[in-house]
Amino acid sequence: MINKTVMPLRRTRAVIQAPGDKSISHRAAILNAAAEGSARLTGFLNSADCLNTLKALQAMAVPIETEGEAVKIRGVGLRGFKPPARSIDVGNSGTGIRLLSGLCAGQPFETTLTGDESIRRRPMGRIVEPLRRMGAQVNGAENGNRAPLRIRGGQLRGMRYISPVASAQVKSAVLIAGLYADSPVSTSEPHLSRDHTERMLSAMGADLERDGLTAAICPGADLQARDMRIPADLSSAAFLIAAGVLMDDAEIAVVNVGVNPTRTGFLEALQRMGADIAIENERMEEFEPTADIRARSGALRGAEFGGDIVVRMIDEMPILALCASQAEGRTVVREASELRVKESDRISAIVEELGKLGVQAEERADGFVIEGPQEIQGGVCSSQGDHRMAMTEAVAGLLARRPTTIQNVGCVDTSFPGFWELLESLS
Ligand code: S3P
Predict the structure, then answer these.
(1) Does the predicted model carry a pTM greater than 0.90?
(2) Average pLDDT over residues 62-75
(3) In this structure, which residue's CA is closest to atom 16 in ligand 1?
(4) 123 Cα: distance to centroid of ligand 1 (angstroms)
(5) What angle do helix axes 196-203 and 168-178 make, rounded to 10 degrees?
(6) If you measure from the C-alpha of residue 23 to the centroid of ligand 1, how many angstroms do you get, rounded to a whole number?
């Protein structure tokens, strides 16, 4: 088990290029593998999660090479995948297993998908149910609600699916499987989740329509491979932005960050709390909006969050909780029960682990309440095997009175290789 100790730091100036977007990297790999032609992906996230997705595709006979910083994928077309010799291990990646399940549902052979202990705990029924309705045979532990999943598919049926959860992984699994259906497939959700799959499918020539909370794919068109420049991940940048806002005397700029509006809830939340955040040089990089983000120290005030904005910052809730602990007044997060089924139960992890550092938070079934400002004492805490908890605790360590030791930090490699070196470079 790897542990890291973070020393308090009060002042910094930095310009940072954060690593590539994890969600977009998974999709760029999977969709280009299923396309006609070759694609060169720059800015691809070379983290454990995304490398596992590349390995899964290679195991299904997709030629993939790395060319310096770039990943080159030779698409095999929708029907060129081959049965993998052994079961596919996605490691820690929920996006990996759920999107690949959508792809495997379209293949006329059996694939077994599994992952680490956290993945085997997470709910899979949310994708298994719609894929079964389309005609795929899916077996798994607990009647298909847990990995390992054994999937045999092929020709699928069209359907109109109404998802009970706002989940981009569910939506994407259904749309990817929809490429293999005999008639249109639509999927609706209660709030709009990240729409990278829809944007990418459209850019690659799929017949995709969007209408509010519904996305529909009309099967039949081949996908065309596309070179892509993947922006930096706002969910990784969020830790640096928070450090910039929360330290006593800081200015941190993170450049070339994806600012797709389905992902920018955290920036809006911080701005609502009074943070000094500037979104500069906003531009369209191919089909994803991109910008530079500058964060400066300043006072925050508490705020209440629920509904749509929670979906648009779901991965930033641990770091939002830390920001709330430094804000004047009360911050309430509700309608965020999805946090319970992430890499850890993030509601209880926030309460338990930030508690060890001296931050009191009240646990609610669907969120948390934090009164601030509170002094962070430092001490010893654990990531609970969750990368976003580890990085939140690291930023807490910068603000603490004493050194902070974070146990079990190997998980950070799933999304942010180089994080610790970067943190060190701030001093
Ligand atoms: C992701 C979707 C979200 C998010 C996850 C990445 C994606 O999960 O939390 O980190 O890439 O589609 P859900 O689809 O479960 O909400």
Answers:
(1) yes
(2) 94
(3) 167
(4) 13
(5) 30
(6) 7
